[in-house]
Design a protein that fits this description.
By secondary structure, the chain is of the alpha+beta class. The protein contains four helices and nine strands; from the N terminus they run βββββββαβαβαα.
């Protein structure tokens, strides 16, 4: 959730992260924005385990003014206050839940569809990826699995609803 604050924030250079707050909507610095950390900056007299002053992150879709002309999509993310605590609004994002990926457009993704058929969730996950070349489904989706899907409860219910709708 946007208002949650992590007890511990583990970050490193090149870590894949997700912004967890709407910082500047017009420039696309929004909850869910993805990219990698380029640098972690501390006050001169400070060092880990103290929190950093800010973290430089190169965002995929940033469209605001450049912080640094040589790296126009690299933006400093400072601490923000939530309730009584302050924290840098980033979370590691090497993997995403299907729910968190809603609304994102991804260049590539490996999607674990698991052993149970959840057609709607599979559709959401698969539809986030821009091209078939960027999509990998795990475990591989074979014809036998498709046949089971075709005979499944969700397909039966959908066909029943379609039939009702065509009568009216």
């Amino acid at each position: 959730m946007d208002d949650e604050i992590d007890v511990e924030l583990l970050l490193s250079k090149n870590a894949r992260t997700m912004l967890t707050s709407n910082m500047w909507v017009e420039a696309r610095l929004v909850n869910g924005a993805l990219r990698n950390i380029t640098q972690i900056v501390y006050k001169p007299e400070s060092a880990p385990p103290q929190p950093p002053t800010y973290v430089l992150v190169e965002f995929d879709n940033y469209s605001g003014l450049p912080f640094n002309d040589r790296h126009p999509s690299t933006i400093p993310i400072p601490k923000i206050k939530r309730g009584g605590s302050s924290q840098i609004p980033l979370r590691l994002a090497w993997a995403l839940t299907i729910h968190k990926s809603q609304g994102l457009t991804l260049q590539k993704a490996t999607i674990d569809i698991g052993p149970i058929e959840r057609t709607c969730l599979m559709f959401v996950a698969i539809s986030r990826v821009k091209s078939l070349q960027g999509l990998q489904i795990m475990p591989p989706f074979n014809y036998d699995r498709y046949k089971k899907l075709k005979k499944g409860k969700q397909v039966f219910n959908r066909k029943r609803e379609e039939k009702k709708a065509s009568i009216h």
